[in-house]
Amino acid sequence: MVRAIVGANWGDEGKGKITDVLAEDSDVVVRFQGGANAGHTIINDFGKFALHLLPSGVLHQRIANVIGPGVALDIDKLLKEYDDVVGRGIPRPKLFISDRAQVMMPYHVDFDRFEEERLGKASFGSTKSGIAPFYGDKYLKIGIQVCMLYDPPMLRERLHGAITQKNAILEALYHKPPIDEEALYHKLLEQAESIRPMVIDTTAYLHQALAEQKSILLEGQLGSLRDPDHGIYPFTTSASPLAGYGAVGAGVPASAITNIYCVTKAYSSCVGAGPFTTELFGDAAVELRNRGGDAGEYGATTGRPRRVGWFDAVATRYGCMVQGATECVLTNLDVLGYLDEIPVCTAYEVEGRTITDFPNTPTLMKCKPVYTKLPGWKADVRGVTSFDALPPNCRSYVDFLQKQVGVPIRMISTGPKRCETFRR
Ligand code: GDP
């Protein structure tokens, strides 16, 4: 059985916690795309963990964790995260790295930063983790797979090819010093040794796990609207965060994915640039931002304040559709207990028309939200673990969202802790 946990929106929906909850009855947890550019916040008995590259199963000793071929592998960051986790008392996680995953190079991170600096005001709000240059090189076929680190002549030749191109751009476009090829080559050889025991053919491993009836959990990063094809391009990430891509980036058959859990917050939050129709500003934004998440809405990786807004049913319905959601998980319901009434965006208005289908980027940029206002419940529901125990207005809010989104909300989270979750 393969289950996927993915985001319905712009990321930060609370997938980390839900992955941690569902990991309990999984045998393998797999990261299938992205890199150290996003983070999952997990709070358990050992404390609070912001995981970036490590799969969320690392906090459960029984679980095998896999970094699939679709991931952008920053080896230094991975090892640091691994050491941090172990240093805080977690038993050594079982971790496997795909021999076909590609290696994030220091120059990818530099190019990310140089390009955002060059773009200035027109920048994309990149986390500057090297993601766009990394995937650019992957599809230009000048990337380096983990397996190539163990073939020194091939590594040298490929590195030279890539660096020749990089140095020309560094000099002509960014006016920066060239890359020290020799030093990087030796650093890569060292990194290769430090991860050697973890590197395997993870695709074969996962197919074997499936043959043995094991339960595999695909752990998505970001959300639908950051998908390069179906999202708010160009304000997207560079590798698909959709469950459909999960099959590719992890290395499991598409037909094996049976459950797609699409996570969404009870309001909206968004890190980075791009159209965000229900965005709040001023005092209302500050209040929601400070009350959101476990310690305010600030990026798990970057610490940047997140943009916040009301629940956007148009975007979430679309987000669930492109994910192929079989059920929805609603998080952060506890955050809204302070409001007298809660607006929910049920349509967009654009050029005199009202639309309910999520449009392409140029149209989206002109859209204004159409709100339906629901009564608040004015109560603290933090830690409530049954639907019936929620105040009537809170239940009505959930039912309204479910009707709008068109996917059953089967799991609800009322606080950042693992135990503050229930199914209905
Ligand atoms: P992810 O990238 O989708 O895993 O999202 P993050 O975990 O980075 O962001 C979600 C934030 O909300 C984190 O600070 C979580 O600790 C927090 N969180 C998750 N679920 C809940 C919830 O139900 N209530 C509250 N108050 N915080 C939550």
Q: At the third CATH level, what is the topology name of the largest domain? A: Adenylosuccinate Synthetase, Chain A, domain 1
Overall number of domains: 3
Q: In what order do the strands lie side by side in the largest sheet?
A: 9-7-5-2-10-1-11-15-19-20
Mean pLDDT: 94
**Spans where pLDDT lies below 50 across 5 or more residues:** none
What would you say this structure looks like, in words?
- There is one protein chain.
- This protein has 424 residues and is of the alpha/beta class.
- The protein has three domains: 2-98 and 198-261, Adenylosuccinate Synthetase, Chain A, domain 1 (3-Layer(aba) Sandwich); 102-195, Adenylosuccinate Synthetase, subunit A, domain 2, CATH 1.10.300.10; 264-423, Adenylosuccinate Synthetase, Chain A, domain 3, CATH 3.90.170.10.
- The two termini are 22 Å apart.
- It is globular and about 65 Å long.
- Helices cover 33% and strands 21% of the residues.
- The mean pLDDT is 94.
- It has helices at 15-23, 75-87, 106-119, 131-140, 152-174, 181-195, 202-211, 243-250, 282-291, 313-323, 361-364, 392-405; strands at 2-7, 28-31, 40-44, 47-51, 64-67, 72-73, 94-98, 102-103, 199-200, 216-219, 257-265, 268-270, 307-309, 311-312, 327-331, 341-350, 353-355, 368-375, 409-413, 421-423.
- The protein has a ten-stranded mixed sheet, sandwiched between helices. Strands 14, 16, 17 and 18 form a four-stranded mixed sheet that branches.
- The structure holds guanosine-5'-diphosphate (GDP).
- The site of guanosine-5'-diphosphate has 24 residues, from helix 1 and strand 3.
- Guanosine-5'-diphosphate binds at residues 7, 11-17, 38-41, 43, 293-294, 300, 331-332, 334-335, 413-416.
